Target: peptide-methionine (R)-S-oxide reductase
Amino acid sequence: MDRRRFLRAALGGGAVLLAGGGLLASRVRAAASTPVGQPGNVLVEIFDDHGRDLGPREMPRLVLTDAQWQQRLPPASYDIMRRDGTERAFSGEHERPAVAGLFRCRACGTALYDAATEFDSGTGWPSFWQPIAARNVVERSDHLFGMTRTAISCKGCDSHLGHVFDDGPAPTGLRYCMNSVALRFVPRTAA
Model:
């Protein structure tokens, strides 16, 4: 079931009630004092704020305790990124910025999407037809709410970003539907 059909079912009264600012029921990823994710190095594609691809680099994955994540992230971002929540549709920022730029992970700064690949999906969440580099995101199977979806997380810190669906535009046919509170837009600077 894709996100649009799920939303229709939710509005029809067949889903979990929204709570705490419109966040869908969140799952706790880890105990309060233990680190989330596994320590170690990850290979990510590095982009500067001009949008130039600086190539792949191995870097340590950002691993923090739950308390450290709560200090690092605003409450809404923490609930989405560390507890696998979803922000309320049409509540976020970043729908089609007026200037060129890229979207970075709010938690660790990894480059995730180029604004040139964003499109209006009509869903109320920022949507992209591809990540800036496939190696910068991780896909995982998500079976929450009795449906199978593909969850997307940041490779640099293992933070939940959103989901990918197969109902997007050409050239990929994909819709990377992201939570805006998981993204930080960086306007492209002159080279």
About this structure: DSSP finds three helices and eleven strands in the chain.
